[in-house]
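Quick start: read one record
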Amino acid sequence: MTTSIILPCYNPVAGWEQIVCSSFAAFCKRVGAQAELVLVLDGHSSAVTGESKAFIKQNIPALKLVEYPQNRGKGYAIRQGVAVATGDIIIYTDIDFPYSPDSLYTIYQALKNNEADVAVGVKDPAYYAQVPAMRRAISKYLRVLIKTFLSMPITDTQCGLKGFKKEVAPLFLQTSIDRYLFDLEFVRNCFKSKKYRVKAIPVVLNEHVHFRKMNYSILLPEMLNFVKLLFKK
């Protein structure tokens, strides 16, 4: 059973290419098989140089590189990756592999062992002690909104680690939100379709993960996206 790992990349931290190569190699070794890496460069970034791309190409032969000049958002980037992925299992996470290797492996195992068609990472309580206060407040408030207005079995939809079988890819590609709430849109679509088995998988954040400052200018557009989801059929 083949696997595609999709990584959206925009303004990564220094040394990102070493993190990607070492984390990807560790995953392949653990599953005992070669996987495909789909790297999506979501707009121009000074941290993504010709040398960094050459380093990844040299160390990961099974690489698909998707790039475009203008930043379009994480949801848009992952859709581009899913569109070219060929794995039987498709997993996406962030460029710095912020969740533990065990978390990534558990997502993979749930799909490989046919425990689910869609595996949704959900953050453990310790996660909230590691993140900045404002990010923590926004995350918890969104979970309250999801529980109150959408009545979904899973309220933690924004964890940056999810996976699904290739037959679910067309449903993922039907998402339309380009930025952060694409995750919510996808999980909601899975429950609404009633075709796929969705399983929540507890995941653990790595220590010393670097959190970016929140771009508060996107909060209003994302609130509008949430409202649109309420009325979407």
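Residues 3-231 form a domain with the Spore Coat Polysaccharide Biosynthesis Protein SpsA; Chain A fold (CATH 3.90.550.10).
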